[in-house]
Amino acid sequence: MPTARTARPAGSRRTSQSGGPAAKRTAAPRPRALTSRATILLAVFVVLALAYTYPIRIYLQQESQIAQLERAQAEQRAAIAATAKDLEKWRDPEYVRIQARKDLYYVRPGEAPLLVIDDPAGAARDADQKAPAAVPDRWYDTLWHSVQAANAEPSN
C-alpha cells in the first residue's frame, strides 16, 4: 500500500536543496480589497447619507429662520417698551406744557413772549452790510427810456 508521501505527483513534490529538480510554485489566491458584502454595505451608507442630507439642510435652515424671527421679535418688544415709556411722559400735563413752550413757543396768559435768536455770524454779516444796491429798472422802463432818448436826438 502506497503512503501519502509517495502518492503525490512528481511535479508538486518538494525537493531537497541538494540540487534536485526545482519545485513548482503555485499562486495563492489574493484576497480582494472589497468584498461584495463590503461594497453593498458602502453603497447603503452612501444612499443613507444622501437621503439624510436634504432633511438636515431643511432643519438647519428652519433653525436659522427661527433664530432670526426671535431676534426681530426682541427688537420689536424693545421698540414697544420705548414707545410705552414715551407715551407715559406725554400723559403728564406738565410735560405737555413744557414741550408746547419749547417746540411751539406757547406762552401763558399774561406772559410777554420773547424769542432770542443767537446768531453771531448773522449779526456780524448784517453789521458789515452796505446800503442796498439800486434795483435795476424793469425791461419795459428801459425800452421806453431808449425810445424817448431816440426821439430827443436832433435830426440833421
From TrEMBL:
Domain of life: Bacteria
Compositional bias segments (type: Low complexity): 21-30
Alphabetical keyword list: Membrane, Transmembrane, Transmembrane helix
Region span, Disordered: 1-30
Positions of transmembrane segments: 34-54
Pfam families: DivIC
Protein name: Cell division protein FtsB
Natural source organism: Actinoplanes siamensis
Lineage: Bacteria, Bacillati, Actinomycetota, Actinomycetes, Micromonosporales
